[in-house]
Specification:
The structure holds two protein chains of two kinds.
Chain A: E1 6-8, E2 17-22, E3 29-35, H1 38-55, E4 61-67, H2 72-86, E5 114-119, H3 123-126, E6 136-140, H4 150-163, E7 170-174, H5 178-188, E8 195-198, H6 204-221, E9 228-233, H7 236-240, H8 242-246, E10 254-257, H9 259-266, H10 278-291, E11 294-299, H11 306-319, E12 323-326, H12 332-339, H13 343-361, E13 367-369, E14 372-374, H14 376-391
Parallel strand pairs in A: 3-4, 5-6, 5-12, 6-7, 7-8, 8-9, 9-10, 10-11, 11-12
Antiparallel strand pairs in A: 1-2, 2-4, 13-14
Helix pairs in contact in A: 1-2, 2-4, 5-6, 11-12, 13-14
Chain B: E1 7-9, E2 15-17, E3 19-20, E4 23-24, E5 58-59, H1 62-68, E6 76-79, H2 90-99, E7 105-109, H3 119-124, E8 128-131, H4 137-144, E9 152-154, H5 157-165, E10 173-178, E11 180-181, E12 187-188, H6 203-208, E13 211-216, E14 236-239, H7 260-275, E15 283-287, H8 291-307, E16 311-315, H9 320-327, E17 331-336, H10 342-350, E18 354-356, H11 359-362, E19 377-379, E20 384-386, E21 391-392, H12 408-411, E22 417-420, E23 424-425, E24 428-429, E25 431-432, E26 447-450, E27 453-456, H13 461-466, H14 477-488, E28 497-506, E29 512-519
Parallel strand pairs in B: 5-14, 6-7, 6-10, 7-8, 9-28, 10-13, 13-14, 15-16, 15-19, 16-17, 17-18, 19-22, 20-25, 22-26
Antiparallel strand pairs in B: 1-2, 3-4, 11-12, 20-21, 23-24, 26-27, 28-29
Helix pairs in contact in B: 7-8
The chains are: A alpha/beta, B alpha/beta.
Chain lengths: 402, 521
């Protein structure tokens, strides 16, 4: 009988690894490494292979590694994936060092204007993603990962969360639907993921199931910080249940809409004008506001059309959305610029915040601007406008002193 | 063969040979420390009565031309590289020499490209003894492996001119592929079915070679105007079906980058040029080939428009992006050294704002001044930079020769030299403790722009001061290095070098700044 072999990766992909493992019951480990840069990397490659195998308690068999220039944490993940494919019951893990720059926290009410989707099995795109300063980075395990790579992608994402610096961007993971999604949670929750995007949510029950699983994992791994949730509504049922879904968990910080699947579900073409989705998008905004969370618009997928992207962000802002999805770093700056408040909005907000400060200093319970009374939600919105203006560089941080 | 040579330490602390391919070589003495005296080399005296009074110098074939030039074993044959990867001439020239039974030739191109891979078979059969010129791709690997008989001598474009004028390299036969020529030998590159732009890199060859052969696929009646190479320096004219493929002059290095990280670096570089106060009315800059440098020009153009600033001149290679700036009135002139795309070729023909230059005007060490030092800023690439701002462009960290110097060394003399480079390639950090091969001394390199921050040479206190409050991510070079090392898992293994020398790198003044050794397999 031929010996089974397990492979993760493919030889064509640049800046990655392809790993094949042939288990054996006895004998030594034989590791073969093919690398064009062996003269620079050979000892470290061998090091990573032997440490990873030892973490996973593997002491027999053959490991063949082809290096096309990936990062070591990817090699580690691919080795773990083939070992686990051969031994599905193994609980052992091989983790890269949990770097200090991967340990920062997030906040429920932070900006989520831009969220950059990155395929979970393409670490190359993750390395510098934070440099482009998106509000959030989504390491995607769902639609951008082919089924054959799901198990490896989960480990690559886990290792990326351990080791990479995303320079302050919120660290998000989009999990798969159903049981695969629950497995995804086990891999990422202990590793300082800030927010989980739950795809294709149609009922509150689905979301609660995910939340409960997260709470169980948190308890097991002793994670104190909350894990925020962003359900994505991508069907007619999801839209109609949006309010219930938005209020289903206290960990919800936003709800998002996914228009590709939604338009397919209601049986229409997705158009540039977007009349077909106006109802759904308005519904999401209203559900979010009612639940006191953010509303996030769908992804804009034409990377080369910046004008259309800007137009689409302006429209999203008009409808009431707080953020937009993107798939290329080039889209981040236009999104931030279009979500930025206008000059008159900023001036008005400054007046309101100043009036609030004065009232507070005088110990007054009521804020007024001229003869107008200002309600607390208006003050909060003004403060948000200022924060947004500061984040976009339109107003200096110390604007009150100027 | 790699050669075991006696090595001495030069002023940069690098060990270099004092004899290169049988010619005495002077070790690098420091920037600006070496100015040889005496008289420049000269071509042999010729008289007009030795040439047809009809002015018709056309001969029947390449073979006939080579024969008339008296081709024989051990000669040096040169050419310009304006067709870049679309050159169809030089493989034919050496095929012809091979058929004629000639051996031990030295090929002295102003640059070589992957299309010249067939030269390997000529080196193996002994037709070519060795190449002195940039070695890319397959030729680079061949030489790095110590298979070439002579040492690779890597020179800058200006250094090539200097070597000819110093008599260090004597050209026996110069081959000048010309997109348009007349029977007298006047020729130009800016028109004809194979138009490639300039022929400036063939100018020195036309002036100093014993024999000059112009090869064209577009023979026009005398006079060919404008002419870039003067027929009075030409011995023979050969007409062939096709001399080059101009669509291939747009090689990999002349396309704009699509990488978001490199675009980001290009944008940071443009912002730096503005913040440092360099971008002022009447300023000048040069952005070389390479995707990031091209993108830099695009970002700078936007900043110039916003600020209403106009440049006096931009040094090309012309590209369609620079041409657009000329057409929009953002610069008075483009000073062309070569041409990187067909839009550049068209504009050069039609727009009088293009000024034809050559390595003599722009780069030559033995000129009475040159244009490179007048530039306010130059944006260049590098394969490695060390914490002392020394840079490498010819080898990679694995010790293999992969790139030519081009005008890179010459450009370092601009008022502000900026290297926009990614901080790592795959798992190889670009900022290192010490460059594998020293090509540019750190004292001439002012700014490194990476996606993880901008490092300014501590010697440039003026730039540090000017950009202090710019909001740009100015960081210490060591700090960026540490961050990247952590990301890619450095330190790396060091390639082990044998004591066999396979090449030398010349400094702009003709001294030897470093040597390249064969890597232990």
């Amino acid at each position: 009988m031929a010996t089974r072999q397990y492979t993760s990766g493919n030889l064509q992909r640049k800046a990655d690894f392809c790993v094949t493992y042939i288990p054996a019951k006895s004998g030594k480990i034989i590791t073969t490494i093919h690398s064009k840069t062996a003269v620079l990397h050979e000892s470290k490659l061998h090091d990573i292979c032997s440490t990873t195998l030892s973490d996973l308690h593997i002491s027999h068999g053959r490991l063949e590694v082809t290096d096309t220039g990936g990062q070591y944490f990817v090699l580690q993940a691919r080795i773990e994936a083939v070992v686990k494919a051969a031994n599905p019951k193994t609980m052992a893990e091989s983790l890269p060092e949990f770097k200090k720059h991967a340990q920062y926290k997030s906040k429920a009410d932070r900006f989520r204007r831009s969220r950059l989707y990155l395929p979970g099995n393409q670490a190359k795109l993750m390395l510098n993603a934070g440099i482009h300063k998106p509000d959030a980075i989504i390491l995607d395990l769902e639609d951008s990962v082919v089924p054959s790579e799901k198990n490896t992608a989960r480990l690559i994402v886990r290792n990326a969360l351990q080791t990479l610096d995303f320079f302050g961007a919120e660290r998000m993971v989009r999990i798969n639907q159903g049981k695969t999604g629950l497995k995804d949670l086990e891999a990422v929750i202990p590793h300082n993921v800030h927010l989980i995007l739950v795809p294709k949510v149609e009922t509150a029950k689905q979301l609660i199931e995910v939340d409960e699983k997260i709470q169980a994992i948190r308890k097991d791994c002793g994670r104190k910080e909350p894990v925020f949730l962003m359900p994505i509504l991508e069907s007619a049922s999801g839209i109609l249940n949006s309010l219930e879904i938005a209020k289903a968990s206290k960990n919800n910080v936003a709800i998002a809409i996914g228009l590709e699947d939604y338009t397919a579900d209601i049986g229409v073409e997705r158009t540039k004008q977007g009349r077909e989705s106006l109802f759904a998008r308005s519904q999401v905004v209203n559900a979010a506001r009612s639940a006191g969370i953010q509303a996030i618009d769908t992804v804009f997928s034409d990377v080369n059309d910046e004008d259309a992207l800007r137009e689409s962000v302006r429209e999203a802002k008009e409808i009431g959305f707080d953020g937009k999805g993107c798939i290329h770093p080039r889209q981040i700056k236009p999104i931030h610029e279009e979500f930025a408040p206008t000059e008159p909005e900023i001036e008005k907000a400054k007046k309101i915040v100043r009036a609030f400060d004065e009232a507070e200093a005088k110990g007054l319970g009521v804020v007024s601007l001229g003869s107008e009374m200002i309600d607390p939600p208006v003050v909060k919105r003004a403060q948000n406008t200022i924060n947004l203006a500061v984040a976009t560089g339109l107003v200096p941080k110390n604007w009150k002193r100027k | 063969m790699g050669q075991k040579l006696k090595l001495v330490k030069n002023a940069a602390g690098r060990k270099v040979p004092t004899l290169v391919n049988g010619v005495k070589a002077i070790p690098f003495k420091g920037v600006g420390r070496y100015s040889p005296k005496g008289v420049k080399a000269a071509p042999p005296i010729r008289s007009c009565n030795d040439y047809p009074s009809s002015g018709n110098k056309v001969v029947g074939s390449l073979k006939e031309a080579l024969k008339k030039c008296g081709v024989k074993n051990g000669m040096t044959i040169s050419n310009h590289h304006h067709f870049r990867n679309g050159d169809l001439m030089m493989n034919q020239v050496f095929d012809t020499a091979a058929k004629m039974g000639i051996k031990n030739l030295r090929w002295f191109p102003s640059a070589s490209f992957p299309c010249h891979e067939p030269m390997i078979k000529h080196m193996e059969s002994g037709v070519i003894h060795h190449i002195e010129g940039s070695l890319n791709g397959p030729l680079g690997n061949y030489a790095s492996d110590g298979k070439m008989k002579g040492l690779a001598v890597l020179r800058s474009h200006g250094g090539r001119w200097q070597a000819i004028q110093d008599g260090e390299v004597h050209i026996d036969i110069a081959i000048i592929a010309a997109p348009t020529a007349d029977p007298f030998g006047n020729c130009t590159g800016d028109r004809g079915p194979s138009a490639c732009g300039l022929l400036g890199f063939g100018l020195a060859d036309s002036l100093y070679a014993d024999h000059v052969v112009v090869v064209t696929d577009n023979l026009v009646d005398f006079p060919c105007v404008p002419w870039q190479i003067q027929g009075n320096n030409v011995d023979h004219v050969v007409v062939l079906d096709k001399v080059g493929e101009p669509e291939k002059i747009v090689s990999g290095t002349t396309q704009i980058t699509k990488s978001p990280d490199r675009l980001f670096i290009a944008e940071l570089t443009a912002k730096f040029v503005k913040a440092a106060g360099i971008m002022q009315d009447g300023f000048s800059f040069q952005a070389g080939a390479g995707g990031t440098a091209l993108a830099f020009a695009i970002y700078l153009r936007e900043l110039m428009k916003e600020a209403g600033v106009k440049a006096r001149f931009i040094r090309g290679g012309s590209t369609k992006y620079l041409v657009e700036m000329l057409e929009e009135g953002l610069t008075d002139f483009i000073l062309d050294g070569q041409t990187f795309d067909l839009e550049g070729v068209r504009s050069m023909r039609e727009n009088s704002g293009h000024i034809n230059t050559s390595p003599f005007t722009s780069y030559n060490w033995h000129g009475k001044g040159n244009f490179a030092s007048i530039l306010d800023a130059v944006v260049l690439g590098a394969t490695e930079v060390d914490v002392n701002f020394n840079a490498n462009v010819v080898t990679h960290s694995d010790g293999q020769m992969l790139h030519g110097i081009g005008g890179w060394q010459n450009c370092l003399f601009s008022k502000c030299t900026i290297l926009p480079i990614p901080s790592f390639r795959n798992r190889i950090p670009i900022i290192v403790d010490e460059v594998t091969t020293l090509v540019g001394p750190g004292e001439l390199i002012d700014v490194i722009v990476t996606e993880r921050g901008i490092a300014i040479n501590p010697k440039r206190e003026d730039l540090i001061k000017a950009t202090k409050k710019s909001g740009l991510p100015i960081r210490k070079i060591e700090e960026i290095k540490e961050e990247v090392d952590d990301l890619v898992g450095a330190p790396l293994d060091k390639p082990e070098f044998t004591d066999e020398v396979v090449g030398v790198v010349k400094w702009v003044d003709g001294t030897v700044i470093d040597s390249i050794h064969k890597v232990k397999q």
